[in-house]
Amino acid sequence: MSCLLLENILHTCSQYPRLSWLYTRRQCVIIGSGFGGSVTALRLAQAGIHCLVLERGGRWSITPAQNTFATLRTPDGRCSWLSSFAVFGEPVPIDVYTGVLELLQEDGINVYAGAGVGGGSLVYNGVTYQPTRTNFERIFPKEISYNAFKARTSLALPGKNTNSTGIPVFVVSSGL
Fold first, then answer.
1. What span, in angstroms and rounded, lies between the C-alpha atoms of 90 and 36?
2. N vs C: which end of the chain shows fewer Cβ within 10 Å?
């Protein structure tokens, strides 16, 4: 039955020139346009491999007024993917909408997944965190050395590798 449904969808799409891209053969399908998906698509395209990138969310147009997204202080449907409450900050009630962030509450861990062209980068804010030794050792098994990990990753020099700086004291002290 699913093959018949797919055949009907493709037949319907063939009737509309705007959807002709669905009939184009691809060598690779990439699910998600976040950090991993976009870099994968770029590298494969550079290698001459024809890819199709699928994203469940929309493309968010950035406006000069900087009001594209909801804020922590004034959450609305744009902040959460099909949720009746804000998934970040206070869980206040909001209109259900296909917003930018989904909260998946799993066994002992909350996972936040970006939704929209850009995936998690939509809510990432360019922040690079370096875990303290205490937090690192609390999460990773003791077979993984904090010093060895720090020496072999961008944790060694986050500011130098990413051109980032520390979070300004006034931001940290403001509680934002």
1. 29
2. N
